[in-house]
C-alpha cells in the first residue's frame, strides 16, 4: 500500500488541499509537517484562551471550486465578515479604498494637491514613460511619485527590508494588478469593487468569509477528515533528504521530534517546503548551477507581538497598515474584529503587532519581554493604546514567511524550474514551494492542480497567479467524475 501512496511535504493550505483532492480520487497520502500544528502561515495559535493568526487571512476566491472546498470542510463554522482596513500615517487614518474627501482632510490641501499634480504629470505629461523595471517605477507609473512616497515606499521597505528599487516589478504587478489611482477614485464614488472590465478587484472587496476560530480551524478540520479517511498528517517530522534516481523520487527521509530518522516511500511526491531547502535536500544534489540558484533565493522572516489590552474597543478595523516611518511596526491585526470568538473575554482586545525582519537581525533573538516592550512603546507612540493598558503579551516567530522578489529571483527561479521539469513524479506547490507570494486560494489551487496531474491532467502549477486566466474567469478544468468521488467530510 505504501508504495502506491503520495508523500506530501508540508501541511499548509497547499499540502492539505492536495491530500484532500487526492482523497476525492480515492488515493491515500501521508503528509509530513515540521511544525507542531497544521496550517503553515495560515495556522491559528492559542495563548491563555485567546486565538490569533499569523497575519490576517481572508477567505475569498474568484474560483468557485475553492469556495466549494472551504464550505465542504468547514460547513456552518464559516462567518461572513465586513472588511475594514485603513492606513495610519502621521496619526491620521486614511480609508482604503481611497475616498477623496477623507484623503484631502488627512493630507491637507498642499499634500493632496501635490498628489493630484504628481499623478497628472505621470499620466499625461511624462513621455516617454520609464519602463516598469522595479517596484518603485511600476507604482509611480500608475499612481504618481507623491502617492508612492506617502503610501507605498515606507510600508513596502518595512516588509521587505530592501529599497523599492531593488524589488522586482513582478511583485507590484501580482499584488496591485488591475488597480490604479483612477480605479480607486472611481470606486470611492460608485463603490463597485470592479475595474473597467467589470472584474472584481480583490484588493478592495467589502466582505469575506472567515472561520469562527480563525484560519487554523479550517486546516485542523481538514487534517481530522484526512486522518479518518486514512491519510495521516505526521507532525514534527522535518524532511532532511529527498532521494531520487533516473528522474524519479523513491524515498523521503525526515527526523521526528526526538531526532530519530524516519523514511517514507511512495509513487508520487508533492513538496510545499521552501524551494531553496527542497533543492538542497535532494540526494544526489542537482548540478552546481541549480544549487547556486537555490542558495540565492531569499525569504523574509516575521514575528507577531500579541498584546492583551484592557479596553473593549481599540479601533474598528480588521487590520491597519502602519506607514509611520518612525516605528518598525508594519501592521496591526485586531483579532476580535475578525471573530469575537478569537478573544476569551470580549471586554478586552487582543492586538497582533506585525514586524518584518531577517532571521539574522538581532531583534530575532531578543527575549520575548523585550519584544513585547518594543510593541507597547511603538503602539503608544502612534497613539493606538495608552500606557498601563496592556495586561499580557506573547510572541510568535515565523521563519520564511515571505519569498523575496529581488531583482534576480526570476532568473534563479527559471534555472530551478528547468531542472525540476526533468522529474516524473515530483511536483512543488504553495507559497514557498513555488517561491511566489500566493494568497491562500492560489496556494490551494496549486495543490489541486498537482493532485489532478497525478491522474493525467496537464495543469501548469507554476502558472498559478502569473497567467491569470483561471483567476479572472473562475474556471477550473479537469474535474472529477462521480464514480471517483468520496463522501464529503462530516462531523
Question: Could you characterize what this model shows?
Answer:
By secondary structure, this protein is α/β, with parallel strands linked by helices. The chain has 3 domains: 2-37 and 62-81 and 212-294 and 406-484, FAD/NAD(P)-binding domain (3-Layer(bba) Sandwich); 94-205, no CATH class; 299-403, Alpha-Beta Complex (Polyamine Oxidase, Chain A, domain 2), CATH 3.90.660.10. It is 35% helix and 22% strand. The chain is built from 15 helices and 20 strands. The strands form 5 sheets. The protein has a 7-stranded mixed sheet with strand order 7-6-16-17-18-15-19, with helices on both faces. A 5-stranded parallel sheet has the order 9-2-1-13-20. The longest helix has 26 residues, at 100-125. The chain is globular and about 70 Å long. Residues 467-474 and 480-491 have low confidence and may be disordered.
**Residues in helices, as a percent range:** 25-40%
Which oligomerization state do the chains in this entry correspond to? single chain
Mean residue pLDDT: 88
The number of domains: 3
How many strands? Answer: 20
Annotation field: number of helices: 15
Overall structural class, as computed from helix and strand content, comes to: alpha/beta
CATH architecture of the largest domain: 3-Layer(bba) Sandwich
Basic shape? globular
Instruction: Predict the CATH topology of the largest domain.
Output: FAD/NAD(P)-binding domain
Please give the CATH class of the largest domain. Answer: Alpha Beta
Low-pLDDT segments, ≥5 res: 467-474, 480-491
Strand percent estimate: 15-25%
CATH superfamily of the largest domain: FAD/NAD(P)-binding domain
Strand order of the largest sheet: 7-6-16-17-18-15-19
Rg, please?
23 Å
Separation, N- and C-terminal Cα atoms: 27 Å
Instruction: Tell me the major beta sheet.
Output: 7 strands, mixed
Amino acid at each position: 500500500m505504501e508504495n502506491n501512496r503520495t508523500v506530501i511535504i508540508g501541511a499548509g493550505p497547499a499540502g492539505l488541499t492536495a491530500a484532500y483532492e487526492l482523497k476525492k480520487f480515492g488515493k491515500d497520502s501521508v503528509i509530513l509537517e515540521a511544525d507542531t500544528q497544521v496550517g503553515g502561515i495560515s495556522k491559528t495559535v492559542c495563548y491563555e484562551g485567546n486565538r490569533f493568526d499569523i497575519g490576517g487571512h481572508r477567505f475569498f476566491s474568484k474560483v468557485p471550486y475553492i469556495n466549494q472546498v472551504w464550505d465542504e470542510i468547514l460547513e456552518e463554522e464559516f462567518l461572513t465578515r465586513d472588511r475594514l482596513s485603513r492606513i495610519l500615517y502621521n496619526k491620521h487614518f486614511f480609508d482604503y479604498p481611497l475616498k477623496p474627501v477623507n484623503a484631502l482632510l488627512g493630507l491637507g490641501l498642499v499634500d493632496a494637491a501635490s498628489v493630484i499634480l504628481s499623478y497628472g504629470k505621470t499620466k499625461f505629461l511624462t513621455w516617454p514613460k520609464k519602463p516598469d523595471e522595479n517596484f518603485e517605477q511600476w507604482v509611480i507609473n500608475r499612481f504618481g511619485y507623491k502617492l508612492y512616497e506617502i503610501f507605498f515606499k515606507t510600508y513596502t521597505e518595512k516588509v521587505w527590508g530592501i529599497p523599492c528599487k531593488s524589488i522586482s516589478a513582478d511583485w507590484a504587478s501580482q499584488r496591485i494588478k488591475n488597480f490604479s489611482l483612477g480605479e480607486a477614485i472611481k470606486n470611492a464614488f460608485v463603490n463597485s469593487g470592479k475595474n473597467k472590465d467589470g472584474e472584481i478587484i480583490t484588493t478592495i472587496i467589502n466582505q469575506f468569509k472567515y472561520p469562527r476560530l480563525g484560519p487554523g480551524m479550517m486546516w485542523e478540520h481538514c487534517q481530522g477528515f484526512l486522518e479518518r479517511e486514512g491519510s495521516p498528517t505526521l507532525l514534527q517530522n522535518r524532511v532532511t533528504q529527498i532521494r531520487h534516481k533516473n528522474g524519479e523520487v523513491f524515498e523521503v527521509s525526515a527526523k521526528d521530534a526526538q531526532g530519530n530518522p524516519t523514511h517514507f516511500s511512495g509513487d508520487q511526491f508533492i513538496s510545499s517546503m521552501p524551494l531553496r531547502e527542497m533543492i538542497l535536500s535532494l540526494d544526489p544534489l542537482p548540478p552546481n548551477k541549480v544549487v547556486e540558484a537555490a542558495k540565492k533565493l531569499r525569504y523574509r522572516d516575521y514575528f507577531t507581538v500579541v498584546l492583551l489590552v484592557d479596553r473593549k474597543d481599540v479601533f474598528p478595523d480588521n487590520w491597519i497598515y502602519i506607514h509611520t516611518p518612525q516605528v518598525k511596526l508594519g501592521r496591526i491585526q485586531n483579532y476580535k474584529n475578525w471573530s469575537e470568538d478569537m478573544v476569551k473575554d470580549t471586554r478586552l482586545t487582543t492586538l497582533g503587532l506585525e514586524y518584518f525582519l531577517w532571521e539574522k537581525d538581532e531583534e530575532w533573538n531578543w527575549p520575548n519581554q523585550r519584544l513585547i516592550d518594543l510593541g507597547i512603546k511603538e503602539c503608544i507612540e502612534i497613539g493606538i493604546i495608552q500606557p498601563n493598558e496592556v495586561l499580557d503579551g506573547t510572541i510568535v516567530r515565523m521563519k520564511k514567511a515571505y519569498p523575496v522578489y529581488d531583482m534576480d529571483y526570476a532568473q534563479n527561479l527559471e534555472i530551478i524550474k528547468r531542472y525540476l521539469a526533468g522529474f516524473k513524479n515530483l511536483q512543488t506547490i504553495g507559497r514557498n514551494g513555488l517561491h511566489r507570494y500566493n494568497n491562500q486560494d492560489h496556494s490551494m489551487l496549486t495543490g489541486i492542480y498537482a493532485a489532478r496531474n497525478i491522474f493525467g491532467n496537464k495543469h501548469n502549477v507554476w502558472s498559478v497567479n502569473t497567467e491569470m486566466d483561471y483567476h479572472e474567469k473562475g474556471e477550473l478544468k479537469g474535474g472529477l467524475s462521480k464514480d471517483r468521488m468520496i463522501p464529503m467530510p462530516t462531523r
